[in-house]
Amino acid sequence: MVKDHAELNRAETLNRWRLILGESSEEGLSNADDYSPDDFKYTEVDEILGYLYNREYGEEQGYRKGGGRGSSDLTVPKWLHKVRELFPKSTVEILEKQALDRYGLTELLTDKKLLESLEPNMNLLKNIMQFKGRMKGDVLKSAKEIVRVVVEELRRKLESQTKASIIGKRSRYASSSVRSLRNLNFKQTITKNLKNYDKNNRRFVIDRLYFDGNIQSHNKWDIIIGVDESGSMLDSVIYSSVMASIFYRLNALRTKLFIFDTQVVDLSDRLEDPVDVLMNVQLGGGTHITKALRYGETLIENPGKTIYILVSDLEEGYPIQHMYKACKDILDTGCKLLVLTALDFNGDTVYNKHAAQTLSNMGAHVAAITPNELADWIGEIIT
């Protein structure tokens, strides 16, 4: 018997109430007038969501891990397969993220087949960095390949604009293959397209845009980047490593990179491969910013053409006066000092505001910025 529109709507409503109220409501809903248990289409969806979100509750709320009235006990591999089968990609990414971040389903990262089935994205990259210490052998190898996919995508997105910003000052005598509004030569574009003016429709038709090129700087600048690897700086660590790799490939710059907690690790010889850099990051632990600043100070060769970038939340684990003194000494050499409380696209940052203000008053540039803004800032200085 074919159901009419009203009956279908009623069944859909009961389905939705079943998801809201949970499995304890199933018997009551099944006894509803004109409703058959066969009409309930969301049982599997409820089972999949319950496998994850019932972890919010303990036994006092009636939840027992591994219990339930489902047709079969779910495992992480089965759950992941069903998630991909039942939900669109955007929802799958959210469920995977919460499974890792909120509910600790680390089997997703320690089982090779499961790991390789996950969508390579920024969130997965961050989770790999946090759990890579528990990965061994083939699992670690697979994790590196995922990191490589995500990092290469990031680098492709950032590299063109970075090159346009940093390689050199704009030249109005050379065209550019980098097409951006910032490089658009309005005068040349209008002049070259005057012949295309449509008199009948009184309309200016542009069939080609003209962009300014760049003149490469012959006097290289030194870029020294020190990155705080504390857990709160994870996004900034990733973007700093990718940007340092891009800088390393530019002839106009000589780039040094080191990471730090209470110790300092110089990764300048690994900048060809940002994946190698990221896999050497050890998140968490204490923070000795002064020690890091003093190490970077030893890398300064030509202060007048050096940009020193400190990426940190400025939460110093040692007497903060020593950190201020180290920053002042660096500024006194003639270096440009840029303190980044965050380097990412999120804009959310938690940092020591008093320390940031103190360093700003000394003459340091202090900001939370995006990678593109960093490239523009460096470009303004070196040109």
Write a brief caption for the model.
Helices cover 46% and strands 14% of the residues. It has helices at residues 5-21, 26-30, 43-53, 76-86, 89-101, 107-110, 112-117, 122-131, 137-166, 186-192, 234-248, 274-278, 289-297, 320-332, 353-362, 371-382, and strands spanning 168-175, 197-198, 203-204, 212-216, 221-228, 253-260, 264-266, 306-311, 336-343, 365-369. It starts with a helix and ends with a helix.
Distance between the termini: 77 Å
In N-to-C order, the SSE pattern is HHHHHHHHHEHEEEEHEEHHEHEHEH
Low-confidence stretches: 60-71, 169-174
Q: Specify the number of helices.
A: 16
Strands side by side in the biggest sheet:
7-6-5-8-9-10
Average pLDDT number: 81
Please tell me how large the radius of gyration is. 28 Å
Which key phrases capture this entry?
6-stranded mixed beta sheet, 10 strands
Task: Give an account of the 3D structure.
The chain is of the alpha/beta class. 46% of the residues lie in helices and 14% in strands. It has a six-stranded mixed beta sheet, with helices on both faces. β6 and β7 (264-266) form a beta hairpin.
